[in-house]
Amino acid sequence: KSAGLFKSIPVIIINRKCMEKTARQWNTSLIYDFGKRRSELCKAMDYKADWFKRWCNELDEQPNFHRKQWEFVYIMQALWERGCIAKDKRGLVFAAGTEPLPAMFAKYGVNILATDIMPEKGIEMGWNNGNQLCFGVESLNTRGICAADEFAKRVQYRAVDMNEIPADLIDFDFNWSSCSFEHLGTLEKGFQFLKNQLKTLKPGGWSVHTTEYNISSNDETQENNNTVIYRQRDIEQIVHELRSEGHFVEEVSFALGGLPEDFMVDTEPHLQKVHLKLQVDKYVVTSIGLIIQKKT
């Protein structure tokens, strides 16, 4: 039965009243797929697209309406469309954990520097649960996506604090992170990371980063926590600041989608059967992806 998933729909309806404070209309439209990734929210329609199925096939997975799968596939497709996944390109990942993307990109001949928080600090923060912490390159090809010899040649590991990116990390063609900068302590620290990470790129280099997005409210949110949640106004603010500094940010779509799965909320304890939107404390949350190009 799906009652457990549907029972939180009133949470969305109730919290639409929060939006009335700022006179915004909540966008639940099913938007047209423009054929190229934008800065956008996780939506069920993507799981039916050929580009989504292509990357799931390469990951040896079936599309499964889980937002973490969406984040990985969205990042791969966004970088693919921009010519980043090509032989001898250089890529940098923040907070790699045990994600499959470094191995996937190495399979295509990309040279990857995988970074994550210092292991002892990660363990202290509890990130060693659920394969969320990287202990070295051996954590990054457990699926055997890339041949072992090619992986060893293409992928390196380095411990890096996202709040203090080393100055010698430069000249990468692209970088990415998957739901990581919301764990830096405050909304502002996440903003600062989005600006600082551009220093690691060549002029014209691309970055793709996903994070937590607050569907329930454009007013209240978690602002100082182990996990902060960005509102529409926060996303609009950082996009404006990046553009004001001369960088390019792909157009942001805040459309929530219009398929049945888009209206299901995975309440606590999360069953993760349909996990595009979920309850986090009193908020309903999904993932948003931002695509940024460093100014030339």
Give a brief description:
With 296 residues, the protein is of the alpha/beta class.
Key phrases:
single chain, 296 residues, alpha/beta, disordered N terminus
Q: In percent, how helical is the residue content?
A: 25-40%
What Rg, in angstroms, do the CA atoms define?
18 Å
- Assign the structural class, choosing from mainly alpha, mainly beta, alpha/beta, alpha+beta, or little secondary structure: alpha/beta
For this structure, the quaternary state is: single chain
Distance between the termini: 53 Å
Notes on the structure:
The chain has 296 residues and is α/β, with parallel strands linked by helices. Helices cover 28% and strands 19% of the residues. It is globular. Helix 5 links the parallel strand 2 and strand 3. It contains nine helices and ten strands.
Write the layout of secondary structure elements.
Blueprint: H1 3-6, H2 9-20, E1 39-41, H3 50-58, H4 67-81, E2 90-93, H5 101-107, E3 111-116, H6 119-124, H7 148-154, E4 155-159, E5 172-178, H8 187-196, E6 201-214, H9 232-244, E7 248-249, E8 252-253, E9 278-280, E10 283-293
Parallel strand pairs: 1-8, 2-3, 2-5, 3-4, 5-6
Antiparallel strand pairs: 1-10, 6-10, 7-10, 9-10
Helix pairs in contact: 3-4
